[in-house]
Description:
Elements: E1 28-32, E2 35-37, E3 40-44, E4 49-54, E5 63-64, E6 80-84, E7 90-95, E8 103-108
Parallel strand pairs: 1-4, 3-8
Antiparallel strand pairs: 1-2, 4-6, 5-7, 7-8
This protein binds copper (II) ion.
Copper (II) ion binds near residues 60, 98, 99 and 102.
Amino acid sequence: MSGCSDGGGGTSTAPPASPSTPAAGGPRIIIKDFKFVPASLLGVRPGAKVTVVNMDSVPHTVTATGSGSFDTGNIEPGKTATFVAPSKAGSYPYDCDIHEYMEGTLTVG
Length: 109
Ligand SMILES: [Cu+2]
């Protein structure tokens, strides 16, 4: 096997994170300093693709608690993952499988 060394090939031209700029591609969760930002992600469309960016230096996950509705699996440092929001409106708490004190809520509707 060859050609697997480019680490996912993200865009390298993205400017530094700018909190005031809405994400073009839809809802997004940033993981930084062992926190989910925003901790409560509101107004996510049912079935929307949610992007998760891990800006920490350790792996994290976004794992729905209880419902099992979504789970990114391990997101390595500096990597981005996506998951599909539940198709039913409601509030979906999640945590990090590795650091259970990390908590957030995804609200669909
Ligand atoms: Cu974590």
